[in-house]
Amino acid sequence: MKTEVKKITAESLREASELIRAGELVAFPTETVYGLGANAFDDDAVKRIFQTKGRPSDNPLIAHVHTDYDLKKLVDFDPPYAEKLRKAFLPGPLTMVYPSTNKVSPFVSAGGSTLAVRVPSHRGAQSFLKEVDLPVVAPSANRSKHVSPTSASHVLFDFDGQIPLILDGGRSEGGIESTVLDVTGEIPLILREGLITREMIASVTGKCEKYVRKEGEIARSPGMMYKHYAPACPAYLCESAEEGVALYRKLDQEGKNPYLMAGGVCLRELPPLRLLSLGDTPKEMAANLYEKLREGERVAGAVVAIRPKEQDGIMAGVMDRLTRACRS
């Protein structure tokens, strides 16, 4: 199979829609990362996502819809606070998890009783979803456990020859996946941290808690299980600049060609060594994380990441990804 990368035009959108309706997979951009999309109603197409990615079958998917899509086609239970959240944050990097009504393929929920729905804000994603006019399930468009993609070239690197089409919408500016929020109960529960923070949600709903998954429990959201976001080279997470530099020097003496990865305040604490800079602000660190992890696997024998001193807000999501990526 030849994989074509095409800019988003009326012609490429028609082709993408035809492929989705024919049961094929299409990669498309969002404001967070690129997704690997399939028709949510097509059992075989949904199963093909798991097969193509090498994704565990118990890791659920997110249904993406356009801004005018009628949510009642997918969910029945809709608490008043969920409507407030949609008005405040959608379209945008927030996924909301509802009780499943079994209206899409059962493989989407991976054996669970909930359905995750997202309305991306990326203009290209909206054009694609409106052209298809179906819920499109899409995990990140990368091999399972590999670093998530923030450009069409990242997707091509992982899936060249395995999918027919990648819609190129430029670099994903958000950089980390959407916040996933369980809205099946009296108060919202964060299943996965992201760009919409707990504080932002609580400002709308009054309360918001972080969900703690129990051992053996079926996952309600992507990103709750397994090692994720990992570069091909070894990656280590150090607690301080001092610890990171010491490990860097040790690996360098062993001929491992290490690179330090840091952002924010930690950047200014480092000597002039080989460096993957995440930037200064939490927003920059989120936007650059996956790009720098992919750069690291190209140029480094090992990545030595330094735990950012910033821990709240957006940085909670960055730290979640960085911790999972560095489980060497």
Write the layout of secondary structure elements.
Layout: E1 4-7, H1 10-21, E2 26-28, E3 35-39, H2 43-53, E4 62-64, H3 80-89, E5 94-99, E6 114-118, H4 123-132, E7 136-137, H5 152-159, E8 165-168, E9 179-182, E10 189-192, H6 198-205, E11 209-210, E12 235-238, H7 241-253, E13 258-262, E14 275-277, H8 282-299, E15 302-306, H9 314-325
Parallel strand pairs: 1-8, 2-8, 4-6, 5-9, 10-11, 12-15, 13-14, 13-15
Antiparallel strand pairs: 2-3, 3-7, 4-7, 5-6, 9-10
Helix pairs in contact: 1-4, 8-9
Could you characterize the architecture of this molecule?
50% of the residues are buried. The protein has 2 domains: 4-210, DHBP synthase (Alpha-Beta Complex); 235-325, Threonylcarbamoyl-AMP synthase, C-terminal domain (Rossmann fold). The strands form 2 sheets. The chain has an 11-stranded mixed sheet, with helices on both faces. It has a 4-stranded parallel sheet with strand order 12-15-13-14, with helices on both faces. The protein starts with a strand and ends with a helix. The mean pLDDT is 94. The chain is built from 9 helices and 15 strands. With 328 residues, the protein is of the alpha/beta class. It is globular and about 60 Å long.
